Amino acid sequence: MRVRLSGLFCAMAVMASASAAGAETPRTVVHAGHLLDVDSGKMLADQAVTIEQGRVVSVNPWSASAASGATVLDWTGFTVVPGLMDMHTHIADETETADAGAPLKSSPARDAFIGAKNARDTLRAGFTTVRDVGVYRGFADVALRDAINEGYVPGPRMFVAGAYITVPGGGGEITGLAPGTVVPEEFRRGVSKGVDDVRKHVDFILDHGADLIKVIATGAVLADGTEPGQSEYTEEEIHAAVTEAAKRGKFVAAHAHGAEGIKRAVRAGVRSIEHGSLIDDEGIALMVKHGTWLVADIYNGDYIDTVGRAEGWSAEKIRKNVETTQTQRDGFRKAVKAGVHIAFGTDAGVYPHGDNARQFAYMVKYGMTPLQAIRAATIDAARLLGKEKELGSIAPSKSADMVAVACDPLKDVECLRQVRGVMKAGAAVSLD
User: Fold this and answer.
1) Distances (CA, A) of 258 to 36, 193, 339, 366
2) Which residue stretches of 194-314 are H helix?
3) For 84-385, which CATH superfamily applies?
4) Rg (CA), the chain
5) In the chain, what are the domain boundaries?
6) 17: buried, middle or exposed (CB in 10 Å: 19+, 13-18, 0-12)?
7) Are 321 and 344 a contacting pair, CB within 8 Å?
8) Burial class (CB in 10 A: 0-12, 13-18, 19+), 401
9) Cβ-Cβ contacts under 8 Å for 183 (sequence gap 6 or more)
10) Strand-pair category, 157-160 with 127-132
C-alpha cells in the first residue's frame, strides 16, 4: 500500500499500519528523496528506511520490493535528517520576561499547561530529544517528561535535571525580587552550601527522578545580583556533586560562564560546560584534555539584546549580556578549532520554544561546517547523553526519529528551519 503525502505525512497512515491484520510485525517504510547519514557524513539519494516497533530496521536504496506489504510514507520531495537534539532547554518553565518574580506568580497547574505547549512547539520544530537543564519550581520537568512518556501530551524525549544545585542567592535562585519577598521551598530544592550539603541535595534530586545534575558553578547573565565571571562553588564542592551523581550512573552539567569557574568544573569532572561565555585558552585546553563537552547558546545574546531591551528587562541583565555575547562567540570559534567536543544547546526558554534551529546558522558563522553543526545536534548530542547506541542517527536498531526539511541543509543550514515532517520513535507528529 502506497500513501502519497504532501508535506507532512499523516498519523493515520502509521495507525493503519499498526492495526493491520496478520501475524507479521507491521512495517512502515519512509521513502526519502535524500537522506543525511551523519555517521558517514554522506548525503544518500532515494533511500528506503524500514521501521518496525518504533525502531529502524534497515536503510537501503529504494526499490519497489522494499515497500512490499508495508505502509509507505512518501518523503521523496525532501531531505531527511535524524531527529534533532537540543542539549540546553528549559521547557517546563515560562519564557523569560522582564518580571523577575514571574515564577512565583504562577501555579503548578499553569506551569503544567505552559510546559505542555513548550514541549509541543519543540517537537513540531523537529527536536525529538532534549536535555532540560533546570527549572525554578522543583521537579516540574520530571512531571512533564513522565507525561510525555505516558502519552498524555506530545513532546520530545526529555532528559531532565529536576532542580538547580546552586549557592544561596546564586545563579540558580530567583533573584531581583522586592525586599521581603519570601521564596517558597519548592523553588529552592537544590540550594546548597558546602560539600555535605551538595551531596545531600544531589541525592535528593536524583531520588525524585532527575536524569542528570545541573550545578550552577558561576553567576548568571539573567540572575540579578550575580556576575557571570564570578565563581560560586569551589572545585571540591563541584567534585562532590560529580562523585555523588556517578554513584547513580548520572552525569553533571555545569552552568559556567567565567574562566575560573569553567576550569574548576572541568577539573572536577563534569560532563559538560553550559554557556562557556568567558572561556580562556587554558580552559579550552583543559576541556580537550578531559574530553569535556561544550554546550554554548551562541544565538541567545541577540534575542536578549533586542527583545530584552524592548520589553524592559533589567539594565543589569542587558549589561551582562553585552559583556558576554561576542566573547562567548569568539571562545566558541576557538573551541571548534581546538577540537573540543561540542553539542547543540540553545537555552530555549530564554527565547520562545520552537525557534531552536535559529542557532545552526550562528554555529556555522562561528567556525563549524554545516555537517559539524548538524552532527552537534544529532550523533554528537547522543554521545553527550551516553545514548549513541539508541539515538542520533538513522541507522538499524536506533529509534526512528527523523525530520523532513524542504532543502539541502549541507548547502544552507537555515534549511533546518523549514520543517515539513517529523517522526519520533516511528510515530508521525502533526504539524497542524
Assistant:
1) 37, 20, 20, 20
2) 195-207, 235-246, 259-268, 281-290, 300-303, 309-311
3) Metal-dependent hydrolases (3.20.20.140)
4) 22
5) 2-82+392-428, 84-385
6) buried
7) no
8) buried
9) 104, 173, 174, 177
10) parallel
At the topology level of CATH, where does 2-82+392-428 sit? Urease, subunit C; domain 1 (2.30.40)
CB 83 within 8 A of CB 128: yes
> Going by C-beta distance under 8 Å and a sequence separation of 6 or more, which residues neighbour residue 158?
91, 119, 129, 130, 131, 132, 141, 144, 145, 148
Q: DSSP secondary-structure letter at 185?
A: G
pLDDT of 158-205, one tens digit each?
999 999 999 999 999 999 999 999 999 999 999 999 999 999 999 999
What pLDDT, on the 0 to 100 scale, is given for residue 122? Answer: 98
Within 26-162, residue ranges assigned H as helices are 102-105, 108-124, 140-149
* Mean pLDDT on 224-239: 98
DSSP 388: T
Whether the Cβ atoms of residue 254 and residue 232 lie closer than 8 Å to each other: no
Q: Are 140 and 187 in contact (CB under 8 A)?
A: no
Contact 277, 257 (CB under 8 A): yes
Backbone angles phi, psi at 397, to 5 degrees: 80, -10
Stretch among 4-13, 54-63, 161-170 having the lowest mean pLDDT: 4-13
pLDDT confidence of 24, banded at 50, 70, 90? low
- CA dist 417 and 125 (Å) reads 7
Residues 6+ apart with CB under 8 A from 369: none
Contact 17, 363 (CB under 8 A): no
pLDDT, averaged across the chain: 94
